[in-house]
Design brief:
alpha+beta, Pemi-like Protein 1, Chain: D, two-stranded antiparallel ribbon, 4 helices, 24% strand, elongated
Length: 176
């Protein structure tokens, strides 16, 4: 559903349009964010934030389901602003948008174990005892992340850390 903002911008001599700062902040658009362009038969031009992981959502779902068959974890695969796939305990209670704090963790480009204040990193109605966040990096760019959620008081170990890195690597290989 499109809604009017009341903002009008003019195309400059190079064909550029400036997206107002308020809209860039609200949509988390920063320098270098890819934008996909759509044109309708009626003459409408729509810009959509590009998420390459949207193109492999079926593969992401299959990976989540395969992991669930062998590990009692909830797996979440995210793009840079939304959940692409999820599977496991309480997966249906996880919101589809991801908080800025999780984006910030992904941008650090390293695997991170979070054991406190997990509600700041992912919106879920159930209490999460810990979460492991592993970025998906393709050609130097962060495309999203693998997030393993643990609702039980069992600690995530080295094996799960390796599994997260392997999963991120499998997804990244789809783009190389």
């Amino acid at each position: 559903m499109l809604r009017a903002t009341g903002i009008v911008r003019h195309i400059d001599e190079l064909g550029r349009i400036v997206v107002p700062k308020e809209i860039r902040n609200t949509l988390r658009l920063k320098v270098g964010t890819g934008m996909e362009i759509f044109c309708s038969d009626g003459g409408d031009l729509v810009l959509k934030k590009y998420s390459p992981l949207d193109d492999i959502s079926e593969i992401a779902e299959s990976l989540c389901n395969s992991i669930r068959q062998h590990y009692p974890l909830t797996s979440v695969i995210t793009g840079n602003d939304k959940v692409i796939a999820k599977c496991g305990k309480a997966a249906d209670e996880i919101e589809s948008t991801i908080p800025q704090k999780l984006v910030d963790i992904l941008e650090k480009r390293q695997q991170t174990l979070i054991t406190s204040n997990t509600e700041e990193y992912i919106d879920c109605k159930r209490e999460i005892s810990e979460m492991l966040v592993t970025p998906i990096i393709v050609r130097g760019l962060v495309f999203g992340g693998i997030v393993f959620l643990n609702f039980d008081q069992v600690q995530l170990g080295n094996e799960v850390s390796k599994l997260a890195k392997l999963t991120a690597s499998i997804i990244a290989s789809q783009f190389e």
